[in-house]
Every structure is written in structure tokens, then in C-alpha cells.
Amino acid sequence: LRDIMALLAPDTGKAHVVGLTGSPGVGKSTTTSALVGALRADGRRVAVLAIDPSSPFSGGALLGDRIRMEEHSTDAGVFIRSMASRGHLGGLSVATPQAIRVLDAAGFDVILVETVGVGQSEVEISGRADTTLVLLAPGMGDGIQAAKAGILEIGDVFVVNKADREGAPATARELRHMLSMSDESDTGGWHPPIIKTVASRREGIEALVASLDEHWRWLHEHGGLSRRRAARAAGEVEALVLAELRARIGDLRAGSGINALAERVAAGTLDPYAAADEVLGALG
Ligand SMILES: Nc1nc2c(ncn2[C@@H]2O[C@H](COP(=O)(O)OP(=O)(O)OP(=O)(O)O)[C@@H](O)[C@H]2O)c(=O)[nH]1
Ligand SMILES: [Mg+2]
Predict the structure, then answer these.
(1) HSE-CB of 263 using CA atoms within 13 angstroms
(2) What is the number of the ligand closest to the CA of 80?
(3) What pLDDT digit, counting tens, does each position of 184-236 carry?
(4) Dihedral-angle region of residue 19 (phi above 0 means left; psi in -120 to 50 means alpha; beta otherwise)
(5) Mean pLDDT throughout 89-107?
(6) Does the C-beta of 28 come closer than 6 Å to ligand 1?
(7) 196 CA distance to ligand 1 centroid (A)?
(8) What separation in Å is there between the alpha carbon of 25 and the centre of ligand 1?
(9) What is the pTM of this model?
(10) Atom of ligand 1 nearest to the CA of 33
(11) How confident is the model at residue 145 (pLDDT cuts 50, 70, 90)?
């Protein structure tokens, strides 16, 4: 992987990475599939990463997604892959950043990353995507939940899906109201649009594509793209460093290094900070 990443690095940075998140069953996969159709009709190559939480929350997600994406499975301009998040905090697979890099280098114009929002976890996707799409649906008590989960801050584009259901205008209104109260300085001047869709009938999908494109243009014009990507890269590097440190600490523990120090700390002949300094010194 190390060698592959080194080879791919010069070819990355072109794709528009779009994260989709929202409560289970809100219509993320249906929307993703409709977006693939619209983007393909426009001649763009599209990759989809569906992050499967592998949790009891939605055990059937994988199969359901397969079925919903099937119509695109024979299209050479579409790549679809489910990835297990294996309990990784944040609901994103550990390998997601690498997968995004590979697809980016492979020349996909748009990479759609679907993550199930359970609790606060969806916030992590905003750190990985150029554009974060937050989906809500009427009658799911989503509005208040959204505010609680800090989802208002991460959404660049909001979708009120299932607009064929009662309560969609109220959900959109409530969302607009909450967005109007949030801190403008956070968004750098971008006003997140709210798009109503009926993903199952592909209604509103063109407007959604237009909003995604508009945000992409805005990111280029206002320097937000390089800022976001630098922050994302920092997160990636940090994660690699932490993984390496964790591995080395594991080695230390397997040897006698930490045990000897721990005994001295327990006996009161060494304080824990001094012990930590010794460990860090050994790691360096
Ligand atoms: N009435 C209505 N139903 C919809 C709409 N969009 C999706 N659905 C249905 O809602 C259900 C859930 O859709 P999915 O696309 O699987 O939702 P999801 O957010 O990907 O679900 P998870 O991945 O399990 O969290 C399916 O039965 C869809 O057919 C819509 O616009 N209107
Ligand atoms: Mg899904």
C-alpha cells in the first residue's frame, strides 16, 4: 500500500469527493443511485463507496445497496464498492481515504461516499469530502436530531428526501430556520441550499447535481478547496502516525519496556509523566 500510494500521489486531487450522510433509511442509497444516473447521462465517470457499518443497526444495508445499484453494474463508467467500517469510530472504514485516493487517481470525476449517520458519527465524513450532503426526510424527527448531532455545521448541501410524503415543506422550513440561526462565519460565505427530492422517482436530482456543481465551483473560486484538502491530508497523516505509534507501543508492551516502568510508577519511585517521557524517548 505504501508503494502504491507513492506512485498514485501525483495523479490525485482531481475528483470531486461528495459525502452523503443521514439517518438510516432516509434514502441515501436511492439518492446515490439516482445521482449516478444523472452524472452518467452528463458523461461523467462516477465511483461509489458505500460504507457498511457492519452493525446491528442495518444488517441488511449491503444487500439493499447492491439491489439499488444493480442498474449501474454493467456500466464501465461506474465503479461501486461496499466497505465495512468494522466498528471504526466515525462510521468510516479505516481504508476509506486510501480507497478515495485510488479512485481519484483512476480518473473518476465524482466519488460518492455513502455513510450511515448514527448519532454523531456522520461528522467524520465532512472531514473526508469536498462537499457534504446531508439528507433528511419528513416525519423522522430529523430536524431536532440534526441540530443535536451537529449535522447543521457539516452540511454543504441539504436534501429533504421523500418529498412525496406529508410534512416535507415543514421539514424544509424548520431546517431553513435552524440554518439561519447558525454561525455564518463557519461557512465562509457559502449558503447551504435545501433541495427537495423524491429519490425513488428521481425527482429533484437535476437540481441536486446543479447544487453539487455550484459548491464545487465555489470551493475553487474561494480557496476553500485547498483549505479543506490540507485539513483532510493532515487528518490522514495524523491517523498514520497514530497507527504507527500504537504498533510501536504494542511492541514495547510485548517486550519488558513498559512493564518495568509501570512497576516503578506503581511503587512510587517514578512519576507517570517521567515514565511517559521515557516511553516517548524509546519510541523516537
Ligand atoms: N416514499 C419515498 N420512499 C423513498 C424515497 N427515496 C427512498 N425511498 C425508500 O426508502 C427506503 C430506504 O431507502 P435507502 O435508499 O435504502 O435508504 P438509506 O438511507 O440508504 O438506508 P441505509 O443505508 O440502510 O441507512 C427504500 O425502501 C426506498 O425505496 C422517496 O423519495 N420517497
Ligand atoms: Mg444505504
Answers:
(1) 5
(2) 2
(3) 566 678 999 999 999 999 999 999 999 999 999 999 998 889 988 998 888 88
(4) beta
(5) 80
(6) yes
(7) 14
(8) 5
(9) 0.85
(10) 15
(11) low
Q: Which residue has the cell 416525519?
A: 139
Task: Write b or e for each residue in 208-244: b if 16 or more Cβ atoms lie within 10 A of its Cβ, otherwise e.
Answer: bbebbeebbebbeeeebbeebeeebeeebeeeeeeee
- Counting atoms of ligand 1 from 1, which one is nearest the CA of 135? 19
For residue 214, report the distance from its CA to the centre of ligand 1, in Å: 25
Return d(Cα 185, Cα 189) in angstroms, integer.
Answer: 7
- Whose cell is 480557496? That residue is 223
Q: What is the pLDDT of residue 87?
A: 55
By residue count, the chain amounts to 284
Higher pLDDT, 22 or 270: 270
User: Which bound ligand lies closest to the C-alpha atom of 21?
Assistant: 1
Task: Please tell me the distance between residue 14's alpha carbon and the centre of ligand 2 in angstroms.
Answer: 26
Q: Is the CB of 165 under 6 A from ligand 1?
A: yes
Q: What is the mean pLDDT of residues 29-54?
A: 91
* 3-class DSSP assignment, residue 107: coil
Residue 61 CA, closest ligand 1 atom number: 24
| Grid cell of 155 as nine digits | 452540511
Q: Is the distance from CB of 118 to CB of 24 less than 8 angstroms?
A: yes
Q: Given the DSSP bridges, would you call strands 16-22 and 131-136 parallel, antiparallel or unpaired?
A: parallel
